[in-house]
Amino acid sequence: MIEPIVDLGEAQDCLTTLFDQPDLSCAVLTGAGISTDSGIPDFRSPGGIWSKRLPVQFQDFVQSAESRREDWLRRLEMLDIFEKAEPNAAHRFLVDLEQPGKLELLVTQNVDGLHQRAGTSTEKLVELHGNSTFATCLDCGKRHELEPLRPLVAAGDSPKCSACNGLLKPAVVSFGQQMPMKKLQHAARVAASVDVFLVIGSSLVVYPAAELPVIAAEAGATLVIVNGEETPIDGLADHILRTRIAKTFEKITI
Ligand SMILES: [Zn+2]
Fold it and tell me: Residues 197, 214: contact at Cβ < 8 Å?
């Protein structure tokens, strides 16, 4: 296995050299680590929201008003954190990557909406676990903003759709709910076709996301992993960068 780069300047040189190449095609996978420098804690880490109370299963959300209330309260709690956060240099780098046509696809495990807020185009973005910053109607799919729903939730009501009176649910993929399979298949095809696959802030333990860099590496892509800790597929990587994520991307220009 190659040695991880721990020096900031060396990490920046590595990325600059790599992304400076003309006609490069790149796919990216991001996880919680890209957003921690924006002030968003990893909700799965010890002490995080999900370690204190178990996530609400999809079936329970549909069937039980009490489960819905618990889920809504937690989503609104998370919204407070998301609203205060700003995209950082790593999110912005991925926006810059689009301009010269180097970004094929950005797949994220995050539900904080920061890639969209940074300016990544929706057609380049796959939010594997959905987005927790708005809600959709389970019947007609209409999008609803969360902020106006606060009083309803506080009063103990389940928010309903203004168009069809269907149940509203935060637009995340809950446990027991299907992942966006077509998007995932598309992501796998893209992963198998790019020159570079870049992982930022994912510990690569949650499947199927963790499979994408493996597919890319096996198809011959240069695999770069920028993450604070070791991952199970470090052995496949061409470059491992173990530097502060936002700092690392501050100086990279394309
Ligand atoms: Zn509806």
Answer: no
Clarify whether 129 is annotated catalytic.
Answer: yes
Out of 1.10.472.10, 3.40.50.720, 3.30.1600.10, 3.90.1150.10, select the CATH number for domain 41-84+130-172. 3.30.1600.10
Give ion ligand 1 contacts, CB < 5 A.
Answer: 137, 139-140, 142, 161, 163-164, 166
C-alpha 53 to ligand 1 mean position (Å) = 29
Segment 35-60, tens digit of pLDDT: 999 999 887 776 676 666 678 999 99
Q: What is the pLDDT of residue 47?
A: 67
Position 15 pLDDT exceeds 70 = yes
Q: Would you state the torsion angle of the CA atoms of residues 229, 233, 236, 240, taken in this order, to the nearest 10 degrees?
A: -10
The tokens describing 240, both together, are 């491992």
| Euclidean distance between CA atoms 132 and 252, whole angstroms | 29
Domain extent listing, the chain:
1-39+87-129+179-254, 41-84+130-172
